[in-house]
Amino acid sequence: MNFPRTLIAVSVLAAVGSTASAANRPSGWTTICSENQTCSVAANTNVAFGRADQFRYKILSGSFVCNSTTFGGKTAGGVNECSKGPGSPSPSPSPTPTPTPSPTPTPTPSPSPSPPPDLGYYPGCAMPTNTQTVQLAATRVVAAGEVFDGQNKVYNLNNGGDAEGQPPVFDVMHGGTVKNVIIGTLAADGIHCNGSCTLDHVWWQDVGEDAATALGPAGTVMTINCGAAYSANDKTFQFNGRGELRISNFYVANVGKLVRTCGDCTGNGGPRKLWVTNVIARDVTSTIVGINSNYGDVATIRNLTLNNSGTGKTKICQVFKGVVKGSGSSTALGVEFNTPACQVSQADVTLMPPSQMNTSACTGSCPIP
Ligand code: ADA
Ligand code: CA
Predict the structure, then answer these.
(1) 76: which residues sit within 8 A by CB, 6+ positions away?
(2) Which of 124, 129, 173, 345 could form a disulfide with 144 if both were Cys (CB 3.0 to 4.6 A apart)?
(3) How confident is the model at residue 249 (pLDDT cuts 50, 70, 90)?
(4) Do the Cβ atoms of 316 and 337 come closer than 8 Å?
């Protein structure tokens, strides 16, 4: 996917002035090509792009150009390199024409480990090895009450970019379930949920505009359990309806926000209740949860682990004043702990060094980051 995107797994710890020891590939990785060259990798290989100990990461398959367009940016100051990790398989060789059919079955290549180990996953909820891709011609509607079992195949729609107003890959009606689905790199507007719905064992290889949107009315519950989402420029989950959104046993990496109740939707309001339970967040550059206190939103966070690779600080529960469409933008009010809106205490958050919490403008019982 060659959309210019800002992938955020950039180590900002690069030691300025100690370039002698800086490497152009992560430790233990192997350079596969240099900037602007065309490289080839096996399906779903995690590729690093950068130099001087600062890298962007992207899951790629087959041939790609090793440049800033592919990775959404580059590390300034010299030639960047593309590299892959020690466990990555070699790309399959280009097929050579065989004059006669081989009498023996072609051995199946060993499946690529998926996700690559460095991407991480919630324990018990690793993304399965994906062997088959389904290219949808149009949004797959999941009817009311239907259980759609994707059999761990990868589903693509038509666009991997960040433009607003895209159709979803799956449009789930009230009471529907999507399970065992991997949303691929053509992720469009992800999954829409129009009532109560369940997303069970769903993974997003590379989030498009956002991973999923809760649109159901008051009284509905959207449940997202056991999965992971990788690489979102901004939000992962978007909550535009009313009712509840519950996220559990989930891993998120290289995203701006885990979830935001809508800041400026048409007919915006609330209340919206969020539950974030058993979540590991790696390199979330902005916020875990963003909510509108003026609409009565409440976020309850339990057993959250922050695991940032650099010096980035993550806000846990950021409170806004939301607005209706046409009345400007929502206003950030600050980070809160143990308040009516932000039901989270320091004990609910585990920091894996060098993770840090961003507690700017904090109210409530604010922890020391
Ligand atoms: C943005 C936008 C909202 C809504 C949302 C979405 O937050 O400001 O109005 O479109 O994206 O649903 O993706
Ligand atoms: Ca969206």
Answers:
(1) none
(2) 173
(3) very high
(4) yes
